Structure to design on (134 residues):
């Protein structure tokens, strides 16, 4: 394993920096080419491409990704404060918005589960080892 990969594996901050760099590269790509999609989605595609081409390993980003997931609630604090500034969200409008949020969350979770299941089945059918065995 190259020395740089070992160094990245040990540093949460460098792992977060890699994710941030992919995000910024996605933003730059979207603006430069005028792509009709959000920059973070393009950044995620860049990160996926790097992982797929084995330029990065999932192990190299695991600690940083776990930190982001563990502190995910902090990313929603501004949204909660915005709701407190709009009392109309506490009535029928809020119930409608809550329904849309719950329905879209369930849709995303079901879609993600189906994609992950399909990917695992495809890997098993094509003889790839599981990611946990590395």
């Amino acid at each position: 394993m190259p020395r740089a990969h070992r160094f990245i594996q040990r540093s949460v901050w460098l792992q977060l920096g890699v994710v941030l760099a992919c995000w910024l590269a996605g933003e730059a790509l979207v603006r430069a080419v005028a792509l009709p999609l959000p920059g973070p989605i393009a950044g995620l595609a860049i990160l996926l491409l790097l992982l797929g081409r084995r330029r990065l390993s999932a192990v190299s980003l695991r600690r940083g990704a776990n930190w982001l997931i563990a502190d995910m609630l902090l990313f929603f604090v501004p949204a909660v404060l915005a709701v407190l500034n709009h009392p109309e969200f506490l009535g029928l409008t809020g119930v409608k918005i809550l329904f849309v949020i719950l329905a879209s969350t369930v849709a995303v979770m079901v879609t993600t589960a189906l994609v992950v299941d399909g990917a695992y089945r495809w890997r098993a059918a094509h003889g790839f080892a599981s990611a946990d065995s590395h």
